[in-house]
Design goal:
Elements lengths: L1 H7 L10 H13 L26 H17 L4 H13 L6 H15 L8 H5 L3 H9 L6 H19 L3 H14 L4 H10 L9 H13 L6 H9 L4
């Protein structure tokens, strides 16, 4: 029957070859289609595709997308395929994918741009955000402005989207930690931050700069400290 096609559409290993099946699945969820024969059907992911009334729901479809994406990344190492699958779900308005999609976007940058080639989604999940920020900047020497614009600021924006107000706290915490041994990174970052009106607004910028200077434990950073304070807007 027609619903058999929907269930069969879940059993694939290459999401790019099954776009139509996935779209049909979500269309069925949005329209609350019956599962064939009134029997609970379970895909190869182990996620039940039917509720007690044998109806697909957007929440069930969302769970399937998330589980399949985790399997693609964790079991097969197909991070790009996992990302593509979640982006496809987002385009079809599948709910509750934002958090996992954000994590995969961060993982993609860490693996391909920051040199963390063995990093996994599970390892990323247990890391503190400030440690993720440090990894994003780890190989930025000589090109810190580009790293900040292309990788760090988007990561901070994703953190802000997940938890309002955390972006400035996270950035300030990272800069103060880096400042304990060198003021170079705080200087570069705060210079860039001055051009972004929505980062470290008002007194937060000055407070962060002063705390960075006081956090520095090296006695050879006077010139850098002076440059940092001089870079602040009057």
């Amino acid at each position: 029957c027609e619903d058999d096609h929907l269930v069969a559409g879940l059993q694939f290993s290459n999401p790019s070859e099954q776009v139509n099946a996935i779209c049909s699945l979500y269309a069925a969820a949005a329209g609350v289609a019956d599962i064939c024969g009134g029997v609970d059907s379970v895909s190869d992911t182990g996620v039940s595709l039917a509720t007690s009334s044998n109806k697909l729901t957007p929440q069930i479809v969302s769970k399937w997308y998330q589980l399949r994406a985790r399997q693609l990344e964790g079991d097969c190492g197909l991070m790009d395929a996992a990302l593509d699958l979640l982006k496809l779900g987002r385009e079809r308005n599948v709910p509750d994918l934002a958090r996992l999609l954000s994590s995969l976007c961060t993982l993609e940058v860490l693996v391909y741009e920051a040199g963390q080639t063995h990093m996994t989604l599970d390892e990323l999940a247990v890391m503190e955000p400030v440690d993720v920020l440090a990894l994003l900047m780890e190989k930025s020497e000589g090109n810190r402005s580009q790293y900040l614009k292309e990788w760090v600021l988007p990561y901070l924006s994703r953190c802000e989207a997940a938890q309002a107000g955390c972006r400035d706290v996270l950035l300030a915490t990272y800069l103060q930690r880096e400042a304990t041994h060198s003021l170079v990174i705080p200087l570069v970052v705060l210079k860039l931050v001055c051009s972004y009106q929505d980062l470290l607004q008002g007194d937060a910028l000055y407070e962060c700069a002063v705390k960075c200077v006081y956090s520095c434990e090296n006695t050879d950073q006077l010139d850098t400290a002076t440059q940092l304070l001089d870079a602040l807007p009057v």
